[in-house]
Amino acid sequence: MTAAAAAWLVFAGLHRALSGRVWWWQVPELVPPLAFAAVPVVLLAAVLVARRARRTAVAMALASLAVGGGASGLNLATLWHHTTPAPPDALTVFSWNTWYWDQPAAGGEPMPPPTGTPERDVAAFYRYLRAQDADVLLLQEYVYFGADSRPIRVNDLDRLRREFPGYHIATASELVTLSRFPIVLKRGLDLRPWLDDGRDTPVPPGSAWPGFYTVKTLRTDLRVGGRTVSFYNSHINSPVDPSSRGLDPRRLDRVQHEAREANLRALAADVRANSSPAVLAGDFNASPAMGILRMLPERMTDAAPALASLYPATWDDRWPWWRIDWAFTTPEVTVHDYRLVRSDGQSDHSGQRLVLSLGR
């Protein structure tokens, strides 16, 4: 037992030191976050029930819990967090990874989504979106994929205007933002100026749509009442080569890691230079155990304390493992309600629904 406690303490220490800092630690990062709390507790219980409890093993189990517990994804703040009632002018935000938009699941071009994707009912897809009754929708994976895993642009603007009359629409790359409020600025954040080495661009040679690979955050400034509020809609690169169509540890590589870092640098720099109240939400392809989350903008605070869950999980929606979809706000924004919305089979991600208001 002492050896097991020592081994886990070493692993937890290495994880804290290396996660998010070196690309080759990406495979250990795939450890379920809850293990960073569960393993030390199991070790501690095993030692304490033994006839001869070893003080060294107890100390190492407690030390590993202290070192790695913050990566567990446990939302302890929900135990003491108190939300306030939303004012009449509060706004509702819905963020969701749509799982390749409304891509058909039968034959032809584009190709079907990955194995296991149910046949898509397009009408049900739009009913689900409308049912959120959100003032602002931040949607990811506004994209189809072809037979060779190449991304295919989606142009569903006419349908969106019919389904959401009166909404303003902004798009960039595979991101789309819909808003009941007027849009005063919209732009995609390009990762290329933030790469350590320009040769590490994630754009495949000959790509017909380089923006898909270089823009993973859409900033949309909205005029809400008499104030401007910035909404950042993000889908940060997966640590896995996107052509692998799944979480295959064999497809982890340095270029993907560099792209993830560059996207987060671009996001942090934009938020740093932005004095407006801001909301950031989307799919970050990062569990609570992934140290790359340290690169998130300093002004932003995780909205998780407002979630009524000790262990919020957004992926996989059918059998939730851990949280990779996140929501953050600047101090001027109050979160009155935050809940995860199951996708009813429409996606492998749960949606995020927030009720927000602006400080006076």
Topology:
Layout: H1 2-18, H2 35-49, H3 55-68, E1 91-97, H4 122-131, E2 136-140, E3 143-145, E4 151-153, H5 157-163, E5 168-172, E6 175-179, E7 183-190, H6 211-214, E8 215-224, E9 227-235, H7 254-272, E10 278-283, E11 301-302, E12 325-329, E13 333-341, E14 351-358
Parallel strand pairs: 1-2, 9-10
Antiparallel strand pairs: 1-14, 2-6, 3-4, 5-6, 7-8, 8-9, 10-12, 11-12, 13-14
Helix pairs in contact: 1-2, 1-3, 2-3
Can you give keywords for this protein?
14 strands, 24% strand, six-stranded mixed β-sheet, alpha+beta, single chain
Q: Average pLDDT value?
A: 91
Strand content: 15-25%
Helix content: 10-25%
Oligomer: single chain
Rg estimate, integer Å:
21 Å
* Structure classification: alpha+beta
Which residues form runs of ≥5 with pLDDT under 50?
A: 106-117
Shape: globular
Most strands sheet: 6 strands, mixed
Description:
With 360 residues, this protein is α+β, with helices and mostly antiparallel strands. The chain has a six-stranded mixed sheet, with helices on one face. The chain contains seven helices and 14 strands.
Characterize this entry briefly:
The protein is of the alpha+beta class.
